[in-house]
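Predict the 3D structure for this chain.
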Amino acid sequence: MRAYDIIYKKRQGLELTKAEIEFLISGYNNGEIPDYQISAFAMAVFFQGMTSRETADLTESIINSGDKIDFSKIEGIKVDKHSTGGVGDTVSLIIAPIIAYFGAPFAKMSGRGLGHTGGTLDKLESIEGFNINLTSKEFIEKVNKNKVAVMGQTAKLAPADGKLYSLRDVTATVDSVPLIASSIMSKKLAAGADGIVLDVKTGDGAFMKSIDDSFKLAEEMVDIGNHLDKETIALVTNMNQPLGEAIGNSLEVIEAFETLKGRGPKDLTDLCITVAGHMLVIAKIFDNNKLAENEVREVIEKGKSLDKMKEFIAGQGGNSRVVDNYDLLPVAQYKHQLESPAEGYISKIEAEELGKIAMMLGAGRAVITDSIDHSVGIKVHKKQGDRIKKGEHIATIYSNEDKLNSNIEKRTIDSFHVTPTKVEKEPLIYGVVTKEGIKK
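Done. Predicted structure below.
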């Protein structure tokens, strides 16, 4: 078997066998197949695509390139949740104690934020003493004791994915649905989940900009999961504006706590209820989504999972008093309130631009080795469809600079589009993808 022949076959649009895909991925991971041939393979996939079976085989080959986490010692059905990335997305932080409250294990391996999207680990590290560097043994013990734990992903998990992504990043082959799907699912499945709920973001602040492409990606990932005998569903959700009102690590942690107290933004609360409902059904805690969502809503409205959140934080070395005392979180020295230059209705909010501005303030990183400032960020005071008066506060910048950079101020204000006529709010959830098909 030769890499040349496999590349040529895919270039011609023919379907590869499982053995051919395994030969390429294992050979590349072991250093036997050079970068330039895998780059050619990625470009062939970009133009010719892959069948569902090929994509599942590619995912499995990437999984087999490194360690697989054995979570068999964790009691119960382990359901993971993954978001494709957005702005203000604190869903994982909110649903973790909720899932645990109902007795289902929330065992999550998570990553750090990069670019304009935030990372769950960075948010949790806003909390004094919180430790994400757990061994597998410690992680399993904490999940069995508290039903919830979060740890960082090990570099030994699906290492071929990291190598392949680095090539895709410099060869204009990142936005290929089979390659994106296999990249995401290889890490999730190698991390030992029994089932997965995917939140595929679509729109301005998401990686996938179009709804059609987002549904294609969701279908591909659901097919992979179910092909590999893991119950998988995907939600396609709106990222044409930030989720919730907070952008930035400590600000988002506060918003998560407020949501668990029943005082969170409606869009964030509603999405958490839907995601948690699906997870609890897959975990066999409830028989149907309507019942599960009603129970989750009650838990949020009555603050029933707050003790579980404190237990979660304390279990990983953090100061659990932070749930009731936000002054224990990093606090920016200055608040710069920005005013609307016009009167009317918010027609659009540029989510990606606000994410980039938060990164410029220090809340995010351009490369994975950058350090971040947990205290800074942006608070959005108006959302799409809201009425605003001229001079009314449209956003607040949290910064450690006493004088706000004029470019940041202008770019933030310009991210809010105001129109004189009332606009309809876009849906929060565009549809659900299961192995049975798409329900919009």
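The longest strand covers residues 195-202.
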